[in-house]
Amino acid sequence: MYTLDIHKAKRKKILKTILVYLILSVFAVVVDNVYALFGHGVRSASMSLMFLYLLLGGALGYFLLWLIAPGVYLNKWYRLGYNLYNSGIATLTVGGFYKGILDIAGTESDYTQMFSILGWGMTAAGFVVLIVSVMNCYSKPEQQRGKTI
């Protein structure tokens, strides 16, 4: 097996991440609509808009990353940034769902603030690590970036 084949397979991982985020965005919209049926037609903005974390933060973010630096996955810090960023997006989405449930029920909780703080913190930390990975990617020669001459 040639190393170029390995690079092509790894480049597809970012595209697979984009596809998963798109599917999760659709799933979030479906969950919101089903929950509204059982919530007697009452809706919450937090729950209705939770798909935006997945769509804009996840799918669009990784699409831009794939366009800017397709070989970024070769960097040793990429996986840390990937995991932090995805955990932040997941925390924000779950926090939006939780706040939506509480809004529909007509109550409040201090935990919704913790979801926001932790979610945005992990997303920001992951974003910084991904930016460092992109910068390191462009400081290497062409062949190490995953591109062929």
Description:
- The structure is a single chain.
- With 149 residues, the chain is an all-alpha fold.
- The chain has one domain (3-145).
- 77% of the residues lie in helices and 0% in strands.
- It has five helices and no strands.
- It has helices at residues 3-38, 45-48, 51-68, 78-105, 111-138.
- It is elongated and about 60 Å long.
- The two termini are 19 Å apart.
- The model has no long low-confidence stretch (mean pLDDT 87).
What does the secondary structure layout of this molecule look like, with pairings?
Layout: H1 3-38, H2 45-48, H3 51-68, H4 78-105, H5 111-138
**Helix proportion:** over 70%
Alpha-beta classification:
mainly alpha
Mean pLDDT, nearest integer? 87
Distance between the termini: 19 Å
Beta fraction: under 5%
Pick out the low-confidence regions: none
Helix and strand sequence: HHHHH
Annotation, overall tally of beta strands: 0
Largest sheet: none
Number of helices, counting only DSSP H or I runs of 4 residues or more: 5
Shape: elongated
Using only C-alpha atoms, the radius of gyration works out to 18 Å
Our count of domains comes out at 1
Any key phrases for this structure?
149 residues; mainly alpha
Characterize this entry briefly.
The protein is mainly alpha-helical and 149 residues long.
